[in-house]
Amino acid sequence: MQFENLTFKDKEAAEAFVERMEVDISNEQDEDFHITSEDKADWVIKKITGVDDEIDRLEEQHRRRVKQLENEKQFFKERFGKELKAFVRANLDGRKKSIDFVHGRAGFRKSRETIEIVDKEANLDWAKENCPDALREKEWTIKTPQIKLMKETGEMPDGTALKPAKDRFFVK
After folding, report:
1. Tens of pLDDT, residues 41-96
2. Dist CA 105 CA 98 (whole Å)
3. pTM (two decimals)
4. What are phi and psi of 110, to 5 degrees?
5. Are 160 and 118 in contact (CB under 8 A)?
6. Residue 32 DSSP symbol
7. Residues 66-80: pLDDT tens digits?
């Protein structure tokens, strides 16, 4: 039996699929099965659409479960985030910026200094004259070329405010 246009993430997934298909087919029908009638063609279509239905059901179930887990994660971050952050900060030894726990790591990462666009029009006008690489077709700008130019020249782009680097708390 050939399956065209199927792609797999890795060789193991492909082999598992082939193995599963061989088992399923041999359990359902013997090797002498051939599509010789409308009923037999319909049986194969039922099997194919049944798999599609199962995939749809599992994808929906997966989507709901992921949403539940994201909500649970958000709950714990909101409920215990400040306490955990304070605990980690109080227990850092000065050299390290994170602590390893049995179930993960928590600590602080230094974010980069960046700019915040506070006046879109002023920034757009400034970029037209000083940093054309920051311009985009729909009359907006991107920060990266402006930050690069700011670091090179020391000139702050019009319509922006400096956001200094700061420690961001993380849990992994």
Report:
1. 888 899 999 999 999 999 999 999 999 999 999 999 999 999 999 999 999 988 88
2. 7
3. 0.50
4. -80, 120
5. yes
6. T
7. 999 999 999 999 999
